[in-house]
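Illustration: UDP-3-O-acylglucosamine N-acyltransferase.
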Amino acid sequence: MKFTASQIAGILEGDVIGNPDVEVSKLAKIEEGSEGDLTFLANPKYKPYIYTTKASITIVNKDFEAESELFTTLIKVEDAYKSFSRLLEYYNQVKMNKTGIEQPSFISESAVYGENIYLGAFSYIGDHAGIGNNCKIYPNVYIGDNVRIGDNVTIFAGAKIYSETVIGNHCVIHSGAVLGADGFGFVPDEHGHYTKVPQTGNVILEDYVDIGAATTIDRATLGSTIIRRGVKLDNQIQIAHNVEIGENTVIAAQTGIAGSTKIGKNCMIGGQVGIVGHLTIGNRVRVQAQSGIIRNVQDDETLQGSPAFHHPDFSKSYVHFKNLPKIVQTIHQFDKKRNNNE
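Result:
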């Protein structure tokens, strides 16, 4: 798919400096750009590359003034970075604008779906499932019985949506994600054998939620595991049964959250964080990567370590930890000197 400089300028409300008819079909970094590529300049440290790039079109800020000859057509905009991001979003929409139902696929006679749907080959839609308008469901997706999916939802190849799951509007679920598998509930008997506790609840995703590849969200034992509006989950995260994650919280890869923990709004949780069950974590909490959370956390705390404690205290303690061999050596020398004096 090709776009001219004038077409791109129209989308971005920018001004063309150079050839308005030059065409691009690919995106590239400014230092790697070649003929037919579109790139951008936002960070000043990359400014030298604009004089050497072979990219056909470069998006720049309106205040950019060339200091020597350019080999690229410019599109001047208010904010080059935001405009390039906007263009990426537009490009993705065009690229993924698939419609229709591919075969072979299975749709239960009792399932209903809205307008402008795309259903990829080898997908399965269960009994009484409901799917909204403008949804894109890629090949090999499983959607179980009684699932409810809102409008403008994208589910990438190989995702599995178990029965009773509810997905809001404008959500994105990436490949390999599993929503609604059983929570990890077992009870030992007198012989040490484990009996499964039935998991009868569901998973609810509110609007504008993104779920990363291979992330798993367990159904509740009773009630719902709830991911609130605007939450963004990275790849390979485990969310256990009856967890609730508050609005606009973001969580990085390989984090694990045990059952019945409640996380507040606008939190930022780094990668490989472990959070034990039945905790309450407040709003706007920051947790550094590889931390272990074993207590309730108040609003606006920043934590680090395993078990995690207040971030400034951790940083100060870590300085001493690095110097621990020297400290121990100094103590031994002091003891030796004291013993000799005795």
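Reading the tokens back as a structure: The chain has two domains: 3-95, 100-314.
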